[in-house]
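hey so u asked for the seq, here:
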Amino acid sequence: MRASGRNMVIAAALIGVITPAAEAATLTATFTTTPNNGLYAPNNIVVVWVEGPGGTFVKTIGRWSLVRTDSLIAWRLKSGLNDVDAVSGATRSDHAGQLTVMWNLMDKQNALIADGTYTVRMELADANSTQAAQNRQGTFTFVKSATAQMQTNLASGGFTNVSINFDPTSAPPPPNNPPPPSGNPPPPSGGGGGDAGTDDSYEAVEGGCSTGGGSSIGLAFALLALATGSSAYRSRSR
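ran it, structure tokens below
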């Protein structure tokens, strides 16, 4: 009986080894930008952030800017002056290609947001703006729930070809991982450099992590074999 109880404890531990951790939800947004005919056009800076019910600031999930970040007026009014989240690249030199942001639904305190309707806001500046109305501004919504949601071909405020994909079961890749398999959203693209010293490479926004299953399963079988062998040995000894 004692050996049987010990085996039950080991079996319970094995369940923890074999069973993968639940993956977090993911929001993926892709979009293209259009010129605003400002002083520095076609150079431009872009930011994407999320607001909760009532317009409360949740998190910055993508930003392509450094030196001229102060010109992103609407975002600054919401996020405050010290928000440094999600720097995805430097000032863009044109509007070529799509931009992509991925978010794991965690807020600034690294807590998972509650279910409900959220707003994805986008802002673009290509001048020394002093008022939000001088910039491109796009507004989109999505619903966080247990149901996946895919919106395509959206447009708002000069942001076009917008897709908003909410997946309640998948997690984004960790930062600096190899490119995702074919069929997943590509990393953000955009022209490099008005901001010297800024890396234009993509940085995933607080992505999830993955765990290989092979080593865990091997460890599980090894522990099970050890438990079985130990029980058999004790039986023979008696």
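Residues 8-22, 177-217 have pLDDT under 50 and may be disordered. The chain has three helices and nine strands.
lmk if thats what u needed
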